[in-house]
Amino acid sequence: MSKFENFMNSVGDVCEKAVKETAKLTDVAATKVKIKAEEARLCDRYEALGKVAESYLRDKDVIPEQIAAALDEITKVKDKIASLEAELAEKKAKHEEKNDPTNTSEAEED
């Protein structure tokens, strides 16, 4: 093999690794963005709960079902955040496993 062919093979290997790392970072970043979006939704739910609670405490014209509904929404958003954080941990572990030089199962997956 000529020096040029060796050089081209090296460049190809570097490019392939760069593409894999970029995909990893994109995957992890997308999940982090989803978590932040859910945390923003959680803030909105807390704000809604605060408004309902304030109205209830001031005017006593808010029915308790509205408070229960606000609490249910908060629980749903918290569950979604926990699910996304678990997904993020799985993705990080998966990517770390693929990058582990002692892992021999990578060749089988590709």
Give the arrangement of secondary structure elements.
Layout: H1 3-59, H2 64-99, H3 106-109
User: Per DSSP, what share of the residues sits in E-state strands of 2 or more residues?
Assistant: under 5%
Helix and strand composition category: mainly alpha
The gyration radius over C-alpha positions equals: 24 Å
Q: Total number of helical segments? A: 3
Given as residue ranges, the uncertain stretches (5+ residues, pLDDT < 50) are 106-110
Strand count: 0
Distance between the termini: 26 Å
Number of individual domains:
1
Characterization of this structure:
This protein is mainly alpha-helical and 110 residues long. 88% of the residues lie in helices and 0% in strands.
Note the main attributes of this structure:
single chain; mainly alpha; 3 helices; about 90% helix; disordered C terminus
Quick overview of this protein structure:
By secondary structure, this protein is an all-alpha fold.
